[in-house]
Design brief:
This protein is mostly helical. The chain is built from three helices and no strands.
Length: 90
């Protein structure tokens, strides 16, 4: 009966019906967390970490660009505020 139903479903949908195989035993949450932690540690060992000098250079570059863009936006803000004040006080 089940085989006939699977064949009928396959013909109607055009997709093969997966066969039920042996189920995998679900592992406990503790086992899965331990496996995850081990995998994370192994992956972090493979990471190519930057040198101290590279980190300092990157940080300095970011700080300089933030300051430059803050000044740029501040100047535009000042300009628009000045123009709005001139329009309103007219």
């Amino acid at each position: 009966m089940n085989k006939e139903r699977n064949n009928k479903e396959a013909r109607l949908t055009g997709k093969p019906v997966p066969k039920a195989g042996p189920r995998k035993e679900k592992k406990s949450i503790g086992h899965r967390l331990a496996t995850y932690a081990i995998n994370v540690r192994n992956e972090l060992k493979r990471v190519s970490w930057p040198t101290r000098k590279a980190i300092i250079n990157s940080t300095a570059t970011v700080i300089v660009f933030v300051i430059v863009f803050a000044v740029y936006i501040g100047l535009w803000d000042y300009l628009f505020a000045y123009m709005m004040q001139a329009i309103v006080t007219r």
